[in-house]
Amino acid sequence: xxxxAWMAERIPGxxxxxxxxxxxxxxxxxxxxAAMRHLVFPGGKRLRPALALAAAEAVGGPAAAALxxxxxxxxxxxxSLIHDDLPCMDDDVLRRGRPTVHVAFDEAxxxxxxxxxxxxxxxxxxxxxxxxxxxxxxxxxxRAIGAAGLVxxxxxxxxxxxxxxxxxxxxxxxxxxxAALIQVAVVGGARLAGAGDERLAELxxxxxxxxxx
Length: 213
Fold this sequence. Notes:
single chain; 69% helix; mainly alpha
């Protein structure tokens, strides 16, 4: 399988979905909407969306079935990057070769842009035509990014010298900050494609494994 060709064929659909859901940069409040879009276009590798689409195909569905999950998980990823770069977090000034959102705009706008992206991600999933599947994917995503997932991992990462706490502690941080979102991308993509509980459990284990690799 030519992975690059596969990505080249499917990722433009993710970009189009992101464009359709994000407010236009010039629409009021313009500064907020421009900040929301700042790291989305041009995007990164779109790894998490690609995994969602691949999971849908792996369970026999079309990649398009997972497009809401692919879109939502990328919005969450961008929200997490914006907040991670804040002065009160990692205080980074560059991201993907561009000024971070709090530098390009201001700190308050960066916080609010991240909040808005997170909210939009759930709107995307809960607008899914298959309401039960969309609600299930939204529930999984909420768990993955909350206190037991991404946010909890960030709290521990900000603590006193995580490396000094030992390898298991570092792996726990990585599992929550990084792997949880990868895992939910895989599971969510398969869920929207109609996978059953047994297949979802298998894919959850797979997603966890590649997430911490």
